[in-house]
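Usage

Read records sequentially. Each one opens with the input sequence:
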Amino acid sequence: LRGASRGLQAITDLGGIDCARHFAVSIHSPVGEVPKGHARSSYWSGLPLPADSIVFIDPDNGFETKTRKGPKWIRHTEVESLLGALPQSSAVVVYQHRPRKTWEQVFKALAPQLSHAGHATAAYDSSLAFVILARSRQVFRRLRTAGQEYARQHGRATWAALSVGGA
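and closes with the structure output:
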């Protein structure tokens, strides 16, 4: 993960890792930030939700926690709403920084908050993770396979299943 090029092009290229079927990758408000307060919902309401897409969320730090809330964290309700609004053939990926805990502790605390997703896994290295969420087992398997191939090619990522009820 760390050795890969950074930037929006690297993100859009992720949609083509699975040669059998591509995911659409588009950038929603690439120069904007999620606003504070009540305006947050209007930001998410403008997000296109096509079939076969991946909604990649980079909230600066990751999922909110009991002590970490605000514009630098994605709310669990926002992820639940987005995943619920997406077609079954789509998924959500959240960029997550590792707080001062082990990944095992982070994932154990995070998994119950993701019960709305049928399937979840995480690709991670020492300091960051991509948490992959899907409602469809078929989509989840495709993303897990693509992510494992990405990890194999770049040689740094480790995988963890998050027990959310379906994975």
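Summary fields computed downstream for this record:
- DSSP finds five helices and seven strands in the chain.
- The helical segments are 8-13, 39-45, 76-85, 103-110, 137-154.
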